[in-house]
Design brief:
261 residues, mainly alpha, elongated
């Protein structure tokens, strides 16, 4: 009879009971580590191990050094996504994954927040080198952080797609409008967007952006409450001709008793 597996680190691997498959779910940390580092470990067995949320962090680290399975992209992705993988293991791997692998990681609810952020940063860093088609897919389907970065894209259809991303938020749009380098195409698309152009905070950001077409500036100003216009005049760095118009708009409202709440 073969000896029972124990936690004794001196026990040779060939003395462990059963095959690697039988040991994938073994509770012993030492057994997990031996399986994770075994050169006979296959992709399927590694993936089965990585489904365990109680897997030892040391076993995960050992697996990351196992050349037999680290050639598998499925294993790489599962290792990065595992909540117990040490950060010094998962972060370097994440930065070298394919763009759409990173997108899936950034959208996975099980992935730790710092790993998601690293994935998003890696995507943003390579946006200038990915194809138009890839940027279009990212704009439509990626996380809000990546979609927001694509608001700065010079291609109007990329900006359109990013604005339609279900994860896009008003805060990201306002933040982008506040950037001096915000592209003209982005500003104009927001101005005429059926959803976002109706938001008060976005209209205020457009008033403050020097690239907003004058006709849109006048239209938004007329629709904003008087208190908001006063606040814009008080705090915003706006172009002189816009400032003059806003002052005239306020004077007209006061003279005509049209002081909007």
């Amino acid at each position: 009879m073969k000896p029972e597996p124990t936690d004794d680190p001196r026990q040779p691997a060939d003395a462990l009971e059963g095959s690697l498959k039988a040991l994938v779910h073994h509770p012993s940390e030492n057994v997990q580590r031996r399986v994770a580092s075994d050169p006979g470990l296959t992709e399927d067995l590694a993936l089965a191990m990585l489904e365990r949320r109680d897997l030892s962090r040391f076993a995960l680290e050992d697996m990351s050094r196992n050349g037999a399975v680290m050639k598998s992209r499925l294993v790489l992705n599962a290792l990065v996504c595992h909540p117990r993988t040490p950060r010094h293991v998962s972060l370097p791997i994440a930065r070298h994954l394919y763009t759409f692998e990173l997108m899936k990681i950034a959208l996975s609810p099980a992935v730790p927040a710092d790993i998601k952020m690293a994935a998003e940063e890696a995507i943003v860093a390579r946006l200038e080198t990915v194809t138009l088609g890839e940027r279009l897919t990212l704009a439509r389907q990626s996380s809000s952080r990546v979609a927001a970065a694509l608001l700065m894209d010079p291609e109007g259809r990329i900006v359109d797609a990013a604005l339609e991303n279900p994860r896009m938020t008003e805060a990201w749009i306002v933040r982008t409008l506040q950037k001096e380098e915000a592209p003209q195409v982005f500003v104009e698309i927001v101005c005429r967007h059926q959803k976002w152009s109706l938001r008060q905070e976005i209209r205020v950001a457009l008033l403050r952006n020097g690239k907003t077409p004058l006709a849109r500036t006048l239209s938004f100003a007329q629709a904003l409450p008087t208190a908001v216009l006063r606040d814009v005049l008080r705090h915003a760095r706006i172009q002189a001709h816009v400032k003059v118009y806003l002052m005239k708009e306020l004077e007209t409202r006061e003279a005509g008793g049209r002081d909007k709440a």
